[in-house]
Amino acid sequence: MELRQNKMICGFLQGSLSVRQSLVMRECNAQSRGYWMISKVFHPEVSDQCADDLKCSTAWALSRILDDHIQDWTTFKFCRVWYDDCPF
After folding, report:
1. Helix ranges restricted to H, 15-87
2. Residue 36: which residues within 8 A CB-CB, separation 6 or more?
3. Using 50, 70 and 90 to split pLDDT, how confident is the model at 32?
4. Cα→Cα distances 56→1, 25, 50, 52, 78, Å
């Protein structure tokens, strides 16, 4: 349950960025693809087909999160910097 709540919070935070933060996110995500914005630069092992497939990309992303790599996502990494009420 906690993992699902964190995903919902990440989605909310990514949807409420300021203009400056959005520009940073756009720059960071220039090589990212799919539902989970999987970096083509840092994760070339994930095919474009998998990144664009909800089931495949979610399985990959959840395995990264469960292996303590949630910091791969910019929203989590910068949450405390960008938001006073960061839940992480």
Report:
1. 19-28, 48-51, 54-66, 74-82
2. 51, 57, 58, 60, 61, 73
3. confident
4. 20, 23, 5, 8, 26
Cβ atoms within 10 Å, residue 88: 14
Structure confidence at residue 22 as a pLDDT band (50, 70, 90): low
Query: What are the percentages of helix, strand and coil residues in the chain, rounded to 5?
Result: 60, 5, 35
Query: Hey, what are 86's tokens?
Result: 């960061």
CA-nearest of 61, 72, 82 to 4 is 61
Amino acid found at 30: A
